[in-house]
Amino acid sequence: MLRPFLTPVGNPGFRFFSDLPLSLLFGGVLFLIFAFSAFLSLFWLPYDVTHLEISFRFQGPSLAHWLGTDHFGRDILSMLISGASVSLGVAVFSVFIGVMIGVPLGLTAAARYHCLPDEIIMRGSDLMLAFPSLVSAILITAVFGPSVLNSIIAIGIFNIPVFLRLSRAKGLHLWESGFVKAARMCGKGAFRISLEHILPNIAPFLIIQGTLRFSLCILGEATLSYLGLGAHPPLSSWGRMLSEAQTFITLAPHTAFVPGITIVLCVLSVNLVGEGLRELFDSQRVRPRS
Amino acid sequence: MSLSVEHFSLSIGKKMILQDISFSVSPGEVVVLVGESGCGKSMTALAIMRLLSEACVETGRIILDGNDLCRCRDPELFRIRGRDISMIFQEPMTALNPLMTIGNQVAEALLVHCQASHIDALHIACKTLAEVGFQGASDFLGRYPHELSGGQRQRVCMAMAIALCPRFLLADEPTTALDAVSRLHICKHLRALSVEQGVGILLITHDLGFASAMSSDQVLILRTDGILESGTKQSLSMFMHHDCVSVSADFPASFRSSLPPDPSLPPVLEVRDAVCEYVSFPSSSLFPFFAVKDVSFSIRKGEIVALVGESGCGKSTLMRAILGLETLSAGSVRFDGAPIDLSRRKVQAVFQDPYDSFNPRHRVDRLVSEPLFLLDRDRSLCSAERAILVEEMLELVGLSASDSRKYIHEFSGGQRQRISIARALILRPLLIVLDEATSALDVRSRSHILSLLSRLSSHFSMAYLLVSHDLSLVSEVADRVLVMKAGRLVEEGTTAQLFAQPSHPYTRDLLDAMRSLDRG
Amino acid sequence: MLFVLYFSYLYYNFLMKFHVRNSEKVRCVPASCLLKTFAFAFLFFCAVPFAQAEAVRVPRILRLGMVLEPPHLDPTIGVAGAVDEIVHANIFEGLTRLNPAGEVRASLARSWYISDDGLEYVFSLRRGVRFHDGSIFDAHDVKFSLDRARAGSSVNGQKDLFSDILSVDVIDALTVRVRLIRANADFLYNMAWGNAVIVNPKTASQNAFHPVGTGPFAFSRWVRGDHVTLVKSPSYQGPSIRLDRVDFRFIPDPAAAFSAMMAGDLDAFPRFPAPELLPRFTSDPRFSVIVGTTEGEVILSINNGRSPFRDIRVRRAIAHAIDRRAVIKGAVFGYGVPIGTHFAPHHPAYVDLTSLSSYDPVRSGFLLSKAGFSDGFETTLILPPPIYARRAGEVIAAQLRAVGIRARIINMEWAQWLERVFERKDFDLTVIAHTEAMDIGIYARPDYYFQYKNSEFQKLMKSLKEMTDPSRRRFILQQAQKKIAVDYVNAYLFQVSKIGVSNVKLRGLWRDSPLQLNDLTSVYWGD
Amino acid sequence: MLHFFWWRFISLLFSLAFASIVIFFILDTLPGDPAAFMLGLNATEETIGALREKLHLDVSAVRRYFIWIGSLLTGDFGMSHTYQVPVWELIKERIFVSFPLAFYALLLSIFIGFPLGVLAAQCNQTFLGTVIIGTNQLGVSVPEFWFAILLVFIFSILLSWFPSGGFPGWSEGFLPVMKSLFLPAVALSFSRLSVLARVVRFSLQEAMSQDYFRTALAKGVPRSRAIWYHALRNAIIPLISILGLQFSSLLAGAIVIENVFFLPGLGRLVFQAVTQRDLIVVRGVVMLITFAVIVVTFLVELSCAALDPRLRKRIC
Q1: Residue range A63-113, pLDDT digits in tens
Q2: Which tens digit of pLDDT belongs to each residue from B90-127?
Q3: Helices marked H in A227-252
């Protein structure tokens, strides 16, 4: 299924590994580590996150606990691993919401250029962009109670206008191209054209924008749980570990630094993957001209 | 005092572009560099101007007044460019900075080189613009590039290049994007520069007509594998037969359809006083802008009609209306008596830019079989039938059946245009609209495409509507010619009659411009 | 300051260097004039803040830290503790006041006479007392304040404090007679509460944001979200006040509170929110740490009106499943006194009943199986925002899970907790601190949120109200404590300690807090 | 200019009206009763009832909306439930914290982000280029609140160069305010300057790959001048729209930073108002921020149109 998306547009030779930009390789490996640990946390954890052993409190990194223990004596490494599943899960689903609602709207806006649906959709997306995203996320989680599902919705809603505008801009550009004119001459409707011709060609841009929004969603989830509006206690989350560890920063600095660095590394890996993909697609998009 | 290139070779990544080329240009001499598209002609010019991207690996020397430009550092290069050597580029539409006025852009070269004050720099700029053919240049100074036509922009580029009277001028295909009239002006000015001001000109082009018109002293032919051959002026006809630059000499005589169109049959296409108006959004002018005004004509079965006019005369709007991509404000377009949306199967089109008219994500078989979607409504073909039809079409246009599994980026410009024709033919339409189908191709693939079209026309007795601004092509191919100017049909007639005594003054200008270029 | 100048000089010639050197690889940076503006603008915006010298401390000014910002400054509206922490005893005074040990002392009422049947009180008021706006204080103000508090439309948070008053009569300018419907031994104690302060009729309505009282300090300024400033009131007749200005600064975030104290931006934090950071203060010679008691009991409230908690065996199993030591260590890092019942341990009448609900998971499991829940059951544990509740909740959930009670934690904001738990009583378990003084009486209210309806206990509370003899009152209180402990109404966890951190040179801060107030009358800067 | 201006102005009003409706009815569903919240734990039923009555919370939702819109137009944002103070007073105080902070952070991110972007665009393949791009990636991926915690830990607790937070009030003079706003501004601008640098790099590289840049070089214009006059002028337009977006996100997005530094800004006011279910304050602030954002985007669009002669000609 991926073949059509990844077919090179420009240079014929597409040797897999040696051709990939460095940032994609480095980011990809790092991200796989996080993704694997998130997947692993569903089945196995080095230590049981729910078991509190107060006497083991604030132990530094040691052989038993590689990254030390927090203020309840829980192992920080296993907290991070189980936190990874929450953070990545929330980010994946909120990007999913953004794409599933944003892209179809964007394509219809592009298809119906200069008439009513386009205006309404654009005004709606401008309004959504005008809404202060963090304030609204707080409102949503406050109204419906803090939980994973609510933070997914709260963050997901603000991905919609981003994908909408991107798919509309790229779509408009493609509607002027020759093969769309040919398709229109074959009597294909706007819906079929959008599906067969426009979507496959804007897929690379969506993928790049998707990775960027993915990293922003991870940060968003961390911020929400830092404010206490994210996942509930049995589910550990990076943001909440940070907010709890904030008061112990002088007593046990590692409890504050380790989750912070994990967030940075995870978001950095996703950004590097995004940067690498952009380089990959840019190098392909250059057309050999006479 | 000459510009000489000695044993220069250039490669990007692993691909060798230029192999050990040597030539020299002395002041007052016109050197023409000819070659197929994509053989690296433009790279030579960019190499001389030291404007190549970082990925190029060069060996050899480029000598100007004794010092080697390859070894120069940036500060000396800034002094040399513009003052001793300057260049004109191919794409006038993007060569000018959209946010700066014409005056400033031309004056900038003066400001930078001779630290002149802004006022007298503008004064000199105004003088240079008048020199290159702008009447009343002073009011052009304040205008922006998007307010000018292609020809005017190219003249501005020329003004920029010659503002400081450089000793050498590189012109990289200056006229391909222009129409006949402005091409003639550019040619006159270049010739005046070399003769009167002793400027050494290196002209790069793939348009033989223009090259012979420049009465060049030296002609160099760059082959696709990067090796340069030199020919003298007298042996101009010799390289006419060179395999890579064969001209229209081997045109199929039988192109024009033998039997005259039978008047009794109902016309394939009938356009009755079509009107297409644009109310451009911000223009507060009272009368709307008319792209097409009261155009009526008809095309009969098997007839080849050409629609000619300068760019911006509304011929492409009319073509889009005929193809059903745009709705007419008034009037009607009929195919065999039926409106367009009922008779989509009867008309197909071949577009101008081969690189833009195919979805890069689809395989060739899916591209070619796209029009079969029209059949799905009444009887849907199974995939086996589709495959056979596609292979048949590919063989018909001279490609192999195995090509159907490939992706479009694996084909050259000429091959893509063949696939486009295969796509148009698959439904056996009555009329094929050729929207400047060959203007983006180089000479050789253009002639192959035209011969293919002639074979198909005689085989399937199909009608063609050829939309073009290239009169020499029209005179060879079309039965009848329609001339359009500013949205109106100013003249209509058979090719022979129109070329013999054109009635409308505008047609006469077009023909004179074409003839003066051909005679050279 | 020097460091910044050097840094911006580096930045400036770093940019200029690029402009001059036209090396092949690194192209030059844009025109120099624009470059200079960048460098100098950077200098201005970064360097300026460093220029400020260290703030010098003026001796007669006190900067006090507080966790919550009060919604308003009128103690007679609502019951937000933060209001009393600022205004009670500083701006407003009641008829009586409490000393650090919690005993009733004279305040605006110089002395009082109580009739034998305890139904009539005659207060003689202090002479020459003025409000901060200059108007003279007299009996009419007392009558107005008491009538206003007990009126039908009153919005006073502690309205039942005044429910026993029959009438308030002015005898002369400085004497007031108050008649009660039924004898109430706590009446004088109640008059010391923040809700019973005497207000000036003319300014009563504006007290919310411009309080006018008779106390030693007058209101000066309120920068919402940051601080409230009080200044010494010239018209105060009482003991000499050795502070000219007091700033109450609101710092909700414990880490920010800690860094404010360490950075020297605050002089004292009477109720420091982060017990875990105290070792840093005790080891630092600049600070002194005072650990006292408060009236706040942290309990695990159980919804007695909902199954399976109607069965006392289940409630008892919960009580035995919880290890108070671990909860205190986990939640407040050891700064808490275990309690076996809903009563403050520092009170003379306190009975230590912790043995009734000692940590015994085996018995807890046995009790659960006897009650028919051998493999435990699912329930929810609702936690309000304060940090002690969230941490204690996690420890308790883990301990309950050990005996098979799987409690799902739900974190809630205050407003939601009040509406769902307090008003609609739609909860199973919740952790909460009851900060009102002497509030064992809430178990006698049938409509209270843990829905404990026990007629015997209600009779006890009625008799306590009418009993004035102290020894008889202590006996009744002890019986009440035993009753709610034996009935296992809730799981009583620990008494909140008052952790006060202050500058070592500061004298006169109260160790304990019988009421939620910061009495600054006796505070001064030592050597 | 008129045609475009009026058309955009009407759509501006339309978005504002639509925003006010959406804000009002979303906030109306906020559970939790402010009256109960104010009266605390031991309140009895009828006191809560009395207070609800006093704050006229029992009028129908639609009528309340029109009362609110009416008062909004006359500039009266209504009375805050918890603070018993006109909302506009509250907001006015908080604006003097949030706007200078947002402006200060924006200036910092411009003065550091812009040169970085220009440098990164030029020295693409060199060591310096990869270093700058690396720091940009890092800057974007650092969570603001964690960076703020680090700043407080290092600069105010360990080195005690800066106050750990709080806002002395403009009456204390310019320097102490700037000193207290410096750390929050750095925390806010750190991720934004990386985003700005990235945008500058991309749009500049895009402009430098255009033909007119090559023509300028062919005219003998030195590279630095070519970059400044040709490439940057064309790269400015995407830059302005990014700056517009950043300013609006600074206004409300600073909630977290205001929490860490306990600054009395708009963000924290909204956060506290939401937890205290003070509907009128929440509505007032969200309406103000949305209005500011829509006006900023409107101005950005106008300046983009004014800068680009192609649009300017089409406008007037």
Answers
A1: 888 888 888 888 888 889 988 988 999 999 999 999 999 999 999 988 887
A2: 888 788 888 888 888 888 888 888 877 888 888 888 88
A3: 238-245
- What are the structure tokens assigned to C360, written together? 């015994």
| CATH of region C297-496, choose from 1.10.510.10, 3.40.50.300, 3.30.300.20, 3.10.105.10 | 3.10.105.10
DSSP C437: T
Lowest-confidence region among A23-37, B223-237, C101-115, D1-15: B223-237
Containing H/E element for B463? Answer: strand B463-468
Amino acid residing at B19: Q
Rounded to the nearest 5 degrees, what angle is found at the Cα of A258, between the Cα atoms of A256 and A263?
100
Q: What one-character DSSP code corresponds to residue C68?
A: S
- pLDDT at residue A289 greater than cutoff 70: no
Which residue in chain B has the smallest CA separation from A180?
B357
Torsion of the alpha carbons at A136, A138, A139 and A142, rounded to the nearest 10: 160
What is the CATH architecture assignment of C61-66+215-292+500-525? 3-Layer(aba) Sandwich (3.40)
Query: What distance lies between CA C320 and its chain's CA centroid?
Result: 29
Q: How confident is the model at residue A218 (pLDDT cuts 50, 70, 90)?
A: very high
Q: Is the pLDDT of residue A31 over 50?
A: yes
* Residue A197 to residue B359, Cβ atoms within 8 A: yes
Q: What is the pLDDT of residue C149?
A: 86
List CB contacts (< 8 A) between C24 and chain B: 73-74
At C179 the three-state DSSP class reads: strand
Residue C13 — φ and ψ, nearest 5°?
-80, -20
Which pLDDT score is estimated for D32? 59
Mean pLDDT, residues A272-289 taken together: 71
Res. B377 pLDDT band, cuts 50 70 90: low
CB atoms B423 and A182 under 8 Å? yes
| CA C331 – CA C263 distance, rounded (Å) | 26
Place B234 in a pLDDT band, splitting at 50, 70 and 90. Answer: very low
Contact D219 B86 (CB under 8 A): yes
Identify the H or E element spanning B421. Answer: helix B413-425
Assigned superfamily of C92-204: Dipeptide-binding Protein; Domain 1 (3.90.76.10)
DSSP labels, A73-106:
S-BHHHHHHHHHHHHHHHHHHHHHHHHHHHHHHH
For chain A, the residues whose C-beta falls within 8 A of a C-beta of chain C are 50-52, 54, 71-72, 142, 145-146, 228, 232-234, 246-251
Contact at CB, D225 and B98, closer than 8 angstroms: no
Nearest-angstrom CA–CA distance, B111 and B102:
14
Q: How far is CA C224 from CA B2, C69, D262, in A?
A: 81, 8, 12
Q: Is the pTM of this model over 0.90?
A: no
> Domain map of chain C by residue range?
2-57, 61-66+215-292+500-525, 92-204, 297-496
Of B358, B360, B371, the CB nearest to A186: B371
> Tens digit of pLDDT for each residue in C218-249?
999 887 778 899 999 888 888 888 888 999 98
Q: What's the angle, vertex CA D194, arms to CA D191 and CA D196, rounded to 5?
A: 110
Domains C61-66+215-292+500-525 and C297-496 share a fold: no
**Predicted-complex ipTM score:** 0.79
Specify the 3-state DSSP secondary structure of C249: strand
Nearest to A52 among C277, C395, C413 (CB): C395
Cβ-based neighbour number of residue B114 at 10 Å: 11
Give CA–CA dist D197/C246, Å, rounded: 47
What are residue B10's DSSP bridge partners?
Answer: B18, B58
